[in-house]
């Protein structure tokens, strides 16, 4: 009878249960999450633009939604997601140029990404309310 060779058991790839949690790892996960959230936020921007094109009644409905507490929280989150994802992209761009790979710089850039996105979001909203 013909023997079928058995495949050797391959080692499992380490995952989140194996690695100890690092700040840069968390920022990588958040970068992916903000990228996904930007899809939803962009659909809301499209809804607003389509409502403006349809007419004043549809535009009023969209403006009422975005003017509500829930709408403003969503817009605030969208602003933060956009800025956080953009700054994360700039961090990856710096890595593409060969800079910032050292352990110290990885941590500094990850913390700057988070602090910068929060600070810029708050500043944009303050300026928005002052201009309004």
From TrEMBL:
**Which cell locations does it reside in?**
Membrane
Enumerate the transmembrane spans: 68-87, 108-131
Q: How does this protein lie in the membrane?
A: Multi-pass membrane protein
In which domain of life is the source organism classified?
Answer: Bacteria
Q: Where does heme bind?
A: 85
**Pfam families (UniProt xref):** Sdh_cyt (PF01127)
Entry annotated with the keyword NAD: no
An example Gene Ontology molecular-function term? metal ion binding
Give the matching SUPFAM superfamilies.
Fumarate reductase respiratory complex transmembrane subunits
This protein's record includes keyword NADP: no
| Known partners and oligomeric status | Part of an enzyme complex containing four subunits: a flavoprotein, an iron-sulfur protein, plus two membrane-anchoring proteins, SdhC and SdhD. The complex can form homotrimers.
Q: Which family does it belong to?
A: Belongs to the cytochrome b560 family.
Q: Please explain the role this protein plays, according to its UniProt record.
A: Membrane-anchoring subunit of succinate dehydrogenase (SDH).
Q: What is this protein called?
A: Succinate dehydrogenase cytochrome b556 subunit
- Give the gene name: sdhC
